[in-house]
């Protein structure tokens, strides 16, 4: 069930998913308004939504022209939907003008509040701070109300699950709800009423699902994201005022954005394309030269951006595990599955000319090896899921000395799909190949595990000390879920996953 959900959600880009979910919430709000369940009229909602979308779409296009880059319509639509839900709906001409100005400020922040290609603040939060502090257009976060809460909660759950940020979102929701509830109880409200008011009338769930989770303003590591979530929750929940500045959800989020920026790669990543080479009949390696130093740890990924004409539903950004060694500052490499029919992104990638300059939004990921190099490990890779392990094993190949004791289970659809064989041989580890047919010629130290799905029994028979190893599983969601289950049945010491949902 989980792997089916991962596969289903993975077919839709995060931009499209956000548009669908936010659009559904807007539609529910319109219906609730027509039924008299909201304070705002259907006309106010329709006019405000239209103005927000037009303002962010048009201003996003203008700013893209001014900064000589390609406009991102889907990003502008998401910004417009969020502006619509954060600022109060209106049908007054003056109010609609100020709402449009709010959308323009949000678009401008993507370009003006950026350092070396990476924007710092959530655009809508930045606009809300500017418009509220100047008293031009006060934020209202009207989407936080008991009528819409069930729909907002479901939508937030979908987004956080898809982005694998459930722990971060839950951290924010629990801390913020607890503090707000205690505050209300201290003021004399009954506990249950306080809890209901905190969740139903404060934008806790909405902010967690649709704004705190924005990937471009998150730090790269999971523990850093949890810390940022806690900081935002505290700033969000405790009232304060300094002159014209008083506590608000947008200021809390901006504070978290600044902390997150301090953790991450403090610049957009620009790289020069060096060339590609075939790995298997259906996959290839792509090599890039960073134009500035890029810090990463083996097992992490980068999000590559390739603006191009005719962008399909998969979008112009894609995450790829880095396969080059962490101490090789002259090259960043990724391995890519190029099965047909291919997405517009991969077609563009496959036709890049050497010397072309491309960008990545950042490096992130927690699929990291234990700090102790003496911990015995077992890797399991499904197809192109071998990529994070290539970088991790490169340290061993280059004489750094870690990891020390590794067994790799490599599952492929055919022996011809064994990618990075030379790198694996150079690492000197034991490799167990799972494929429908036995390979004709395996390198020394490689064995054929057999056909069919990997089972706990086959793993235990091939790796007698399996129960004493930490397991790392990488590949498509179905493969990761199945093999993780079999590893648990076999009694491994610990388990880490890296599912390529939507790859």
UniProtKB/TrEMBL annotation:
Coiled-coil ranges from the UniProt annotation: none
Magnesium keyword on record: no
Keyword Transcription annotated: no
FAD-binding FR-type domain span: 266-370
Ranges annotated as spanning the membrane: 12-39, 45-64, 142-161, 168-188, 194-213, 225-242
Record key words, sorted: 2Fe-2S, FAD, Flavoprotein, Iron, Iron-sulfur, Membrane, Metal-binding, Oxidoreductase, Transmembrane, Transmembrane helix
GO molecular function, one term: oxidoreductase activity
Domain of life: Bacteria
Cofactor requirements of the protein: FAD
Name of the protein described by the UniProt record: Ferredoxin-NADP reductase
Organism of provenance: Herbiconiux ginsengi
Upper classification of the organism: Bacteria, Bacillati, Actinomycetota, Actinomycetes, Micrococcales
């Amino acid at each position: 069930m989980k792997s089916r959900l991962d596969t289903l959600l993975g077919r839709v880009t995060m931009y499209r998913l956000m548009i669908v979910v936010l659009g559904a919430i807007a539609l529910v709000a319109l219906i609730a308004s027509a039924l008299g369940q909201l304070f705002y009229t259907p006309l106010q909602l329709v006019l405000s939504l239209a103005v927000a979308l037009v303002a962010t779409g048009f201003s996003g296009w203008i700013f893209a022209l001014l900064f000589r880059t390609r406009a991102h319509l889907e990003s502008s639509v998401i910004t417009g939907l969020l502006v619509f839900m954060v600022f109060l709906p209106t049908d007054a001409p003056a109010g609609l003008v100020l709402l449009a100005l709010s959308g323009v400020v949000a678009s401008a922040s993507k370009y003006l509040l950026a350092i070396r290609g990476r924007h710092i603040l959530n655009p809508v939060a930045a606009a809300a701070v500017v418009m509220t502090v100047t008293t031009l257009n006060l934020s209202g976060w009207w989407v936080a109300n008991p009528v819409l809460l069930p729909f907002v909660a479901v939508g937030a759950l979908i987004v956080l699950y898809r982005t694998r940020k459930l722990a971060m979102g839950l951290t924010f929701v629990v801390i913020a709800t607890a503090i707000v509830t205690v505050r209300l109880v201290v003021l004399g409200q009954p506990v249950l009423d306080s809890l209901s008011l905190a969740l139903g009338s404060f934008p806790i769930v909405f902010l967690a699902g649709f704004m705190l989770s924005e990937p471009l303003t998150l730090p790269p590591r999971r523990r850093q994201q949890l810390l940022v979530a806690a900081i935002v929750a505290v700033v969000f929940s405790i009232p304060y005022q300094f002159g014209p500045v008083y506590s608000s959800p947008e200021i809390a989020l901006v504070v978290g954005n600044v902390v997150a920026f301090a953790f991450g790669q403090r610049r957009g990543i620009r790289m020069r394309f060096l060339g590609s080479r075939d790995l298997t009949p259906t996959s290839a390696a792509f090599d890039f030269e960073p134009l500035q130093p890029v810090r990463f740890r083996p097992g992490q990924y980068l999000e590559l951006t390739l603006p191009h004409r005719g962008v399909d539903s998969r979008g112009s950004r894609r995450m790829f595990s880095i396969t080059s060694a962490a101490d090789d500052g002259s090259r960043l490499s990724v391995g890519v599955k190029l099965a047909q029919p291919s997405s517009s992104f991969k077609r563009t990638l496959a036709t890049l000319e050497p010397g072309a300059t491309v960008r990545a939004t950042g490096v992130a990921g927690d699929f990291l090896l234990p700090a102790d190099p003496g911990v015995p490990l077992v890797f399991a890779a499904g197809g192109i899921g071998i990529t994070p392990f290539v970088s991790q094993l490169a340290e061993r190949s280059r004489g750094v000395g870690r990891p020390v004791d590794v067994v790799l289970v490599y599952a492929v659809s055919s022996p011809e799909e064994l990618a990075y064989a030379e790198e694996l041989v150079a690492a000197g580890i034991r490799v167990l190949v799972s494929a429908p047919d036995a390979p004709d010629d395996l390198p020394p130290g490689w064995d054929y595990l057999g056909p069919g799905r990997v089972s706990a029994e086959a793993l235990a028979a091939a790796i007698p000390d399996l129960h004493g190893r930490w397991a790392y599983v990488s590949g498509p969601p179905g493969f990761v879920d199945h093999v993780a289950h079999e590893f648990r049945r076999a009694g491994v010491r610990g388990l880490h996953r890296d599912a390529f949902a939507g790859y």
